[in-house]
Amino acid sequence: LAKTTQPISMDSYEGQEVNITCSHNNIATNDYITWYQQFPSQGPRFIIQGYKTKVTNEVASLFIPADRKSSTLSLPRVSLSDTAVYYCLVGEGFSGGYNKLIFGAGTRLAVHP
Amino acid sequence: KAGVTQTPRYLIKTRGQQVTLSCSPISGHRSVSWYQQTPGQGLQFLFEYFSETQRNKGNFPGRFSGRQFSNSRSEMNVSTLELGDSALYLCASSLAGNTEYFGPGTRLTVT
Predict the structure, then answer these.
(1) Which has the least CB within 10 A, A29, B22, B44, B108?
(2) What is the distance, to the nearest Å, from the Cα of residue B107 to the centroid of all Cα atoms in its chain?
(3) B30 at the A interface (CB within 8 A)?
(4) How many CB pairs below 8 Å do chains A and B form together?
């Protein structure tokens, strides 16, 4: 399974755009990149998933360069409620021998007023 | 669509006892995974069930076991509880791929 590396913590202010970069040098051909958000004492919440280039939904954008060795989660105009831990994961899709996603330490984002 | 539900939400047990946690996946989801989360170790994968069969297993002792029923509901059992088993136990479901949807968790405290 590809190991991921992301910053331990980040600080931002309300209204700013936040970009969290994740490194996954050993990503495999079948691996997808998935980001989760977790608030204290709650289960992680799926944010976005992608394979290559750019993916956008109502919550965030995910930028993946051509070599797929890194990815960047972009949160537009953050608010105090975006203060959470963000996990970047890579893992294979279903293939009969499903390899589980391994959660790293995540990035603790603190949004200040 | 209703999300993943877990019961109970909070539990206090004594060392040496056993505990059973329950998880109901999102309707139509056939894969259920269990995770343990502690401040020191973070989120750790316990096991995954798909169509009533254990498909993947993490690196936990045999005291941790699980099962899945024909309606995809899953239970996790921990026997001979230890203080270090105090944690947030999370259940996640998915159709079959790698997009998992997590429940709120069960907070287990072992005294």
Answers:
(1) A29
(2) 11
(3) no
(4) 61
